[in-house]
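Reopening this ticket.

The earlier resolution said the output was attached, but the attachment link was broken on my side. Pasting everything inline this time so it's all in one place.
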Amino acid sequence: MAPRPAPTDLHRRGRLGLSLPATAAPPSPLGAPGTHALDLGGGPPALLHVPPGLPAGAPVPLLVVLHGAGGRAEEVVAAVAGAAARSGVLLLAPQSAGVTWDAIRGGFGPDVAALEAALALTAQHHVLDPARLGVAGFSDGASYALSLALGDGDLLRHVVAWSPGFAAPAEQHGRPRVFVCHGTADAVLPIDRCSRPLVARLRAAGYDVDYTEFEGPHVLREDLVEESLRWFVTG
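Inline output:
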């Protein structure tokens, strides 16, 4: 087995050095509906979830989905798969190398390198629509999704943050569209310290932000997953 990709200086800046091919490889098992484990060369695999009914050979939207602290890739796939099938969205769910994502533990690096490798492998088997590439996450995954997208907005054009804590990009590139939702009774990441000031800063900086507050705790709500995927596809 080849070693897991080592982070480069680019990855430590939170940047994905990825160029999408114009065409995908001939049909392969990774193109079939279902959830496939992507071997990244040691360490936890990423999961590629292919919903039924994707048009063969046509450009498709891809959403990277990120678990929360202590979570698993399969959990976030299970939470989003139904909405992805109804919206026709390919899902890519990496697994953090540690208990949560690298930048939250101290700095970008290994998780960015692994995500780049997973995206490159996915692009060998599916034609990805460059206008509909995005990243989403819940809790710590939402904070990481925002941090990645603000630094890689020239590649990741859309970001969905379900109950984020913060955004801390190492650099800022591009101008991704932003969807944020947060519960008013969130005791884990209180809305007054997290999404409300965060959204205000993003809007003041000129970002296009769709923001929803809901009555409830720190949860990933099915109706808002559905709404955010429709937002992603139709944007």
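Reporter confirms the inline version is readable. The chain has one domain: 34-234. The first strand starts at residue 34 and ends at 38.
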